[in-house]
Amino acid sequence: EDKPKEEESKDDVKEKDEKKGDDKAHKFRGPAKDDPGDGLPTYDPKEIEFKWNKDMKDKKSCDTLHMLYLLQLALNLVRLRTIERNKYFKSIGRSDRFINQLDNPQIIENFLDWHNKDKEKNKFDGELLDKSEKLHMINEIISEIGGGAGKIVKKGPATKIYTKLKKDVVIETTTWLELPQPKLKLKSTAKTGYTKLYKGEKVIGECTTADIVTLLTYVNPSDDAWAGEHEEKKQDDDKGILRGVFQSIKWSNNFKSTQGGDKPKKPKPSALEMDFILNGKDKTNGAILKKNTDAIAKDNPITDEYKAMAKRKRRWEDLIVAFFEGKPREWKYNDDTCSFDRPADPNDPDDDIKAAAKIKVHIVKDGTKPSDLGDELKPKEECKPYDGARFEATSVKQLCQECMDYLIPPQVQNSKGKPFNTKLRGGVNQILRELKKVYVQGILEAAAAQK
Questions:
Q1: Which of 97-101, 128-132, 263-267, 349-353 has the lowest mean pLDDT?
Q2: What is the pLDDT of residues 90-117, one digit of tens each?
Q3: What is the pLDDT of residue 339?
Q4: Is the pLDDT of residue 253 over 80?
């Protein structure tokens, strides 16, 4: 049964015309061709693994990495349609009309090579797709750049690729953002392909433990780094402002949404910033107390006093660094108090950590006194440093639990008999998420420039 005209694709119309005129054109047939096959690579492609950025909800907002993944999907749609067309040609005995399959990983690699030559100028992103003329995208971008030196993408296939990318490929937010979030793979050739977007830049999996510490502790001294999201300025290279992980956490919780805009919000520091067991009770450098945030009236800008307090370095930062460095964690308990392993700073008269050492310990399981626990408080396994490779190989769940147990032993429990450290989960997870997505090369270079 024929489809309505408006539902017929150009390929469907071509097939009908071919059936009508095939007998007449018999004498004009070219030499038979070998079946091009399914178009899948005969080698194991190299892959860039990444997770879809939740901020890229439409094609316009995509950066080069995400847009190249959409291009890869468009190339696959062209590959599948080519299989269908070739099956039809085979069914009517017209092997001379077989359509060659494209080398999809090579096309992606050609774009990656081009982008790596000038990552600021050579962008295949949503803005390019949205604002460029159709013929420019087909001829100068997909055919010329995607075709590379071997000119493997002619104008005809380039047109099909553009149409698929523009009209048929969709951003599958439901699938790509579900938890646990799946890893997507951008594929290039086996010999000269890519395992990261920029071959010359370090990524988190290649970091040493010292690099990890730098990523955690780097502080951008610019006032712009503490501005609210409505006031945030872009750098000259159009990248977001560089912040180390700890600075990013403080900014996100205390500054991002509390300044500028129509409806500024109250700051919401995490338990890491507010817990007095970790940070002590010193009014200057100790924990941020709930009364500090409650004192800020809703819809009013945060005060300069609060800003200064929220920016300060606190003990939880030292402990997180010590965890990644694999330093032993020693807890010494008295019956009703816990004494920290960090002594007061003799050069800092405001360091009240001695007073913080006299904090009452929360209820311990079965009513056991802390001093009775003895060796139970020691870590079950020897602390080992985390470099980038180990960080990537360890599940977030395991890494989060290890870090929580390092900060406050699980034997220390609340009034309901639950480990007290569970309240740190949100803050620790926030650190791990931020560490996974920071611009590694940029922060390492910025930190080196400060020395």
A1: 349-353
A2: 999 999 999 999 999 999 999 999 999 9
A3: 40
A4: yes
Q: What type of residue sits at position 107?
A: I
Please tell me the least confidently modeled range out of 44-48, 200-204, 324-328, 415-419: 415-419
The CA distance from 444 to 447, in Å, is 5
Helix axes 425-437, 396-407, angle to 10 degrees: 130
Query: Which range (118-122, 203-207, 334-338) has the least confidence?
Result: 334-338
Long-range contacts of 420-424 (CB under 8 A, 24+ apart): 420/277, 420/362, 423/271, 423/275, 424/271, 424/272, 424/275
- How far is residue 309's CA from residue 352's CA, in Å, rounded to a whole number? 15
Distance in angstroms (rounded) separating the CA atoms of residues 13 and 18: 9
Q: Give the DSSP H/E element, type plus range, for residue 46.
A: strand 46-50
pTM above 0.90, yes or no: no
Residue for token pair 């489809």: 3
Q: What is the DSSP letter of 141?
A: I
Map residue 188 onto helix, strand or coil. strand
Please give the angle made by the CA atoms of 126, 244 and 186, to the nearest 5 degrees. 35
The CA distance from 331 to 345, in Å, is 19
Among candidate residues 415, 233, 216, 422, the one with its CA nearest the CA of residue 320: 216
Task: Return the SS3 of 399.
Answer: helix
Residues 6+ apart with CB under 8 A from 368: none
Rounded CA-CA distance 11/17 in Å is: 10
Least Cα distance to 379 among 318, 336, 328, 343 occurs for 328
pLDDT at 246: 97
Mean pLDDT of 345-352: 49
Burial of 239 (0-12, 13-18, 19+ CB in 10 A): exposed
Strands 184-188 and 46-50, by their bridges, are antiparallel
